[in-house]
Design a protein that fits this description.
single chain
């Protein structure tokens, strides 16, 4: 068996990056391979951000081998000027090569079957934030979150809410110190016209997901406008 070069740590303690900087493998004594992780990607009804959410989903799928798409009932049933519900779900299934979860019943097995290593909620609306903070489980996305968190595994929220610095501020404050919950870095998206609005930087979703799997919050969490 070949020994590592003198002065270098053994392979299981080395940290390396492969795939042109897009896919990172972190080797520890327990050998954690990010490519082996299963990630849930849940979409809530901030319809104006769905195009950015799909771009984020593409990046997440490029980094992790298995991604399970999830949508809230509102997303599954609502056509808007930003697109049709059927087209959005079909696009998610194309990216993930997996059927969309869109009901409470379908989301419940995520917990007992330990289906996910990480859950991303992108976009995460003020409504969903409030329910997560209060422990309310009445949608497919909040059921996915509750079921997933029972396994003490990380959840990443990508905010998109017009009242992030108003009514939803309390929910953000309640979730920030909560164990296993992480945030995609966020900031004010239009402080002149919408001074209380907060939106995550969706280009950082995949990085925030990787950081959460490593047990850390991607920093800085607050972005300047």
């Amino acid at each position: 068996m070949q020994r590592p070069a003198r002065g270098r740590p053994p392979p299981w303690k080395q940290r390396a990056a492969v795939g042109g900087g897009h896919t990172h493998i972190f080797l520890t004594e327990r050998k954690i391979f990010l490519e082996d992780k299963t990630v849930g990607f849940a979409v809530c009804g901030s319809f104006c951000t769905h195009a950015k959410a799909m771009a984020a989903l593409e990046q997440v799928k490029a980094r992790f081998a298995r991604v399970v798409p999830i949508v809230s009932e509102v997303v599954a049933d609502t056509d808007t000027r930003f697109g049709k519900a059927h087209d959005l779900m079909r696009e998610m299934e194309r990216i993930c090569d997996c059927r969309v979860i869109s009901t409470v019943k379908a989301a419940e097995p995520i917990g007992p079957q330990k289906l996910l290593d990480l859950l991303i909620i992108c976009p995460c609306t003020g409504n969903t934030l409030g329910k997560l903070a209060a422990g309310i489980t009445d949608t497919s996305v909040t059921m996915a979150a509750k079921a997933h968190l029972r396994n003490s595994r990380p959840l990443v929220a990508a905010l998109s809410t017009n009242d992030g610095l108003a009514a939803s501020a309390a929910s953000i404050g309640a979730l920030l110190p909560r164990k296993h919950i992480y945030f995609v870095p966020f900031g004010q998206d239009d402080f002149e016209k919408k001074p209380t609005s907060l939106v995550a930087d969706f280009s950082l979703v995949a990085d925030a997901a990787q950081a959460a799997l490593e047990g850390r919050q991607l920093q800085p969490i607050l972005l300047r406008g």
